[in-house]
Design brief:
Protein name: Methyltransferase domain-containing protein
Distance between the termini: 41 Å
Strand content: 35-45%
Order of helices and strands: EEEEEEHHEHEHEHEHHEHEEEE
GO molecular function, one term: methyltransferase activity
Shape: globular
CATH architecture of the largest domain: 3-Layer(aba) Sandwich
Organism: Halohasta litorea
Keywords: Methyltransferase, S-adenosyl-L-methionine, Transferase, tRNA processing
Number of domains: 2
Structural class: alpha/beta
Mean pLDDT: 93
InterPro entries: rRNA_Ade_Mease_Trfase_CS, SAM-dependent_MTases_sf, TRM61_C, tRNA_MeTrfase_Gcd14
Helix content: 25-40%
Low-confidence stretches: none
Number of helices: 8
């Protein structure tokens, strides 16, 4: 897939596909490359651009509210997620986190209970170019915990589910020594339960942080945080198996 960009306007298309807009029509060449300039029949120029992380957030098909880039950045930064890591994820949703981790080179197994959501997530992995590194499974991860603990341990466990505390309780049997747990929750009550489960399981370095980000506004009168939008997204709990 390639992004066709003209100013603030972006369109996601596959090589060989057509683009029809009020700016004209064009056919994306099969051999299109990043940086190519394509012209519509009306003479409007579009720049072809390869997908990167922020583009995934903006252009993957959504089945709900996806994890924000700010939260994904904290997950990667706090756990050191990297190429060749084995990641076990639950609560796939749109699949933005799995796509980011796959593009880092990690091997991801992710569970989504809703069959329609899971199918959309699989399509999104193709769009992101990580379908060979992200295995989207339909079902409840708690049903497979026994079989998952019998194989090669995971380096990272990422959860965005209401039953995260139950899964965290099994983290020592799922993770390699030094492996991390990262749990996202929109509600602090579930984070509290997750912390209790992590401590009961003997995990170390247990901490919960709130994600808040404020955009700055600059004008002739001065500079200040923007009053638009909501800075808070959710709570992230981290722990480590040692």
């Amino acid at each position: 897939m390639i992004l066709l960009c003209h100013g603030d306007r972006e369109y996601l298309r596959a090589p060989g596909a057509e683009l029809h807009t009020d700016l004209g029509m064009l056919t994306v060449p099969d051999d299109v490359e990043n940086g190519d300039v394509l012209e519509t029949h009306l003479g409007t120029e579009f720049v072809a651009r390869e997908l990167r992380g922020p583009d995934l957030f903006n252009h993957l098909e959504r089945t709900g509210a996806p994890m924000m880039p700010r939260d994904i950045g904290l997950v990667v930064g706090h756990t050191g997620a990297a190429a060749d890591d084995r990641v076990l994820d639950a609560g796939t949703g749109t699949g933005v986190l799995s796509a980011y981790l796959g593009r880092l080179g990690a091997s991801v197994t992710t569970y989504e209970q809703d069959p329609e959501f899971a199918e959309v997530a699989r399509e999104n992995m193709v769009t992101a170019g990580v379908e060979d590194r992200v295995d989207v499974r339909t079902g409840d991860i708690t049903d497979d915990l026994d079989s998952l603990t019998g194989g090669e341990p995971f380096d990272l466990l990422t959860l965005d589910t209401e039953d995260a505390p139950e899964i965290v309780a099994s983290a020592p049997n799922l993770l390699a020594d030094g492996g991390y747990v990262a749990v996202y929750s929109p509600f602090i009550e579930n984070s509290r339960k997750t912390v209790a489960a992590a401590e009961e399981a003997g995990l170390s370095g247990v901490e919960t942080i709130e994600t808040i980000q404020r955009e700055m506004t600059f004008d002739d009168r001065g500079s200040r945080p923007s009053t638009a939008g909501v800075g808070h997204t959710g709570y992230l709990t981290f722990a480590r198996h040692s």
